[in-house]
Amino acid sequence: MTEPISELDLMAQVDDQIGSGRRIEVGEYLSRQSTMAARGMADLRRREELRQTLTGIASSCRAKPTMLPVR
Amino acid sequence: MHHLLNDHIMPLRRYALALTRNVDQADDLVQDTLTRAIESASSWDPRRDLRRWLFGIMHNVHVSVSRRRSLETNIAGQLTSITSDSVPAAQLDEVHFDETMAALMKLPEEQREVLVLIGVEAFSYKDVAEMLGIPVGTVMSRLGRAREALRAVSGREQETVTDAAEGNRSFLRVVK
User: Fold this and answer.
1) Which of B24, B39, B101, B172 has the highest number of chain A CBs within 10 A, making it the mutation to test binding with A?
2) Is residue A62 in a domain?
3) Buried b / exposed e across B112-148, counting CB within 10 Å, b at 16+?
4) Residue A23: inside a domain
């Protein structure tokens, strides 16, 4: 018998921090639960949006040049 | 060690911006982190993950700077006569923000840092727990609350996103 899919499993699936066996079980669950599948996809999309936005700001509005300390 | 540090400046800047929400303070935080890293280079074991080590330093530097800053703010608050010449902080320009970024910036710091370390910098739950000195369970509950808050904010655009997904599934790609 497999463990019921938990919120922690769904979170680990989004973050790609899930074991391969469990991944298959979660995938199976998501194929039947379209609302939860859509929620996970939206979480992934937001992950990528944040990464792009933060990278954009980090590369554009630098107040001072970063200097590696000299020894 | 200098050439090794160069590769990590951009990720450190991203994290610093998320932590401080302020361009000048983020610059200072990156600078202080690199200085601290160079000073304590001898304590770094080359077999260990340099990126993880640097982010851990940034977290610690940020905690001590914030502590000092809040102490200074308290003192300044008591000396009302000198508050008039306070310099306006270089807050992040919200023009750059989409709905998700705006929601991130409104999160409490403890949720913001966990979401950025895991969602943007792709650290493992375990690494983040060690970096922040908190249990893995706490990392996951903070992450869960952060995601919940972001979902609530972008709930309104959800329908359009689902519609778009029918024709274009490219956003489903997992980006590492």
Assistant:
1) B101
2) no
3) bbbbbbbbbbbbbbebbbebbeeeeeebbbbbbbbbe
4) yes
